[in-house]
Each structure stands twice: as structure tokens, then as C-alpha cells.
Amino acid sequence: MHLSVKRVARALNVSEKTIYRWIDQSAIPVHHINDQYRFNSVELLEWASARKMHLSPELLAGTGNGDSPQPSLKAALELGGVHYGLGGEEKSSVLRAVVRLLPLPTETDRESFFQLLLAREMAGSTAVGDGIAIPHVRNPIVLSTEQPAVMLCFLAHPVDFGSLDGQPVSVLFTLVSPTIRAHLHLLSLLSFALRDPRFKSAVLRQAPCEEILDAAAKAEAGLPKPPASGKDD
């Protein structure tokens, strides 16, 4: 989903002039398409999450459209699982441990998937601050999994992920999605849930699995209904 300058300004609650200034400063991810600036929803969500910027529910409009229903965050977490005490001394070894645990189809080349995660981190850290990172493949269409999932891992030892706030990471949410639509849907839900005090507290405390799942359901229940959305202007 590609967004216009006007739509992004509304979603971030800033002026269009501010968006253009950020573009001039190369401070926001943007693409130049047919002589117009367009923003990729996935990139924008990642960018805003890393800077703890509030996103209007308007940006989430369209993530629920389609022929098949998208899973709730709780359902995706149940499928991905919650894991405690994940080993690893640095980013690469942690990501290898994550890939070993991921619920991937049997035919998946896990080494290739690990390399994709590592390449994504080299392109830009997936850390979003407060000791949390969301490692994922930016182009999830390459995965053959049938159901999108979110795996939550708590690290045995905090690891430097190059977070903007300088904090080492001890919590990883890893997304596995068969389509870009499902990826954007889950990333949107997770970004929203991490602004919910109850859910974030449960995650940072490394609470028991059932408490985290319950907090995820309650956080998602508080998601405002997006307004009717037509063609992007």
C-alpha cells in the first residue's frame, strides 16, 4: 500500500510542509514514482515505530480489506509461540536461534531465511526502542507459510541491535507472513499494541504466556475503527 504526502501528514498528525522538509533532509523513507512522492506502508510503520511516533488509525485503513480475514494478534502469537531464555551473544547468533524456532514449512530453507533476516538488519535495525526489536523479512511474499504468525522470544542476555535509543534488545517479535497484506496487518497490530501500557508492561516484565496473550487481546480490542477509506489522494 503506497501513501501520498497528504495521507502521511494526516496519519502522523503533522503538516505537509513538515513531510516535505523530512524528505529534503532524507529523514523519512520515500519513493519517487511518476513524478510524485509515495510512501510504502511497511517502511513507514517501521520508521515511525523506531521513533516512537504516534500513527493515526487512518494509516491502518485497508489492512483488513481482502477476501480472507486476517488473524488477531493473539492468534498470531499463539501460532508463533512465546519462548523464554533464548541463547545468543550477538545479533547474528540470536537470529540463528530465532530461525531454528520459527514455525516454518518443512520445505523452507532455514539458512536462506536466516540470511534474509540478517540482510534486513544490515539495511537498517529492526529495533524499535525500550529493548524491543521486530526482526522480519521486508518482502514476506517469498515465504510459503499458509498462516501468518508472530513469535515472541525473550533473550537470556540483552544484545546490541543498533537501536536508536541505544538500549540493548532483550525482546524479539518475529513476523512470518505469506503476503505483504498479512505482513502489514500484523506489523500494524503489533505497533499499536506496543503503545498499550498493559501489553507493553507484560512484555517488558517477561510475564507468563497467558498474561501476554490476554493483554494482546485487550490491546487489540482497543484499536479504533478506521474511517471508511477510498482511493488514496
Folded structure, characterized:
This protein has 233 residues and is α/β, with parallel strands linked by helices. It is built from 9 helices and 8 strands. The protein has 2 domains: 50 residues, Multidrug-efflux Transporter Regulator, Chain: A, Domain 2; 149 residues, Mannitol-specific EII, Chain A (3-Layer(aba) Sandwich), CATH 3.40.930. The strands form 2 sheets. The chain has a 5-stranded mixed β-sheet with strand order 4-7-8-6-5. A 3-stranded antiparallel β-sheet has the order 1-3-2. A hairpin with a 2-residue loop joins β2 and β3. α1 crosses α2, α4 runs antiparallel to α9 and α5 crosses α6. About 3% of the residues have low confidence.
Q: Termini separation (Å)?
A: 13 Å
Mean pLDDT: 84
Helix-strand pattern = EHHEEHHEHHEEEEHHH
Number of domain units: 2
CATH superfamily of the largest domain: Mannitol-specific EII, Chain A
Q: How many strands appear in the DSSP assignment?
A: 8
Order of strands across the main sheet: 4-7-8-6-5
The CATH architecture of the largest domain is 3-Layer(aba) Sandwich
What is the strand content? 15-25%
Poorly predicted regions: 62-67
Query: Can you identify the CATH class of the largest domain?
Result: Alpha Beta
Q: Helix count?
A: 9
Shape: globular
Key terms for this structure?
9 helices, 233 residues, 41% helix, alpha/beta, 8 strands, Multidrug-efflux Transporter Regulator, Chain: A, Domain 2, Mannitol-specific EII, Chain A, 3-stranded antiparallel β-sheet, single chain, globular, 5-stranded mixed β-sheet
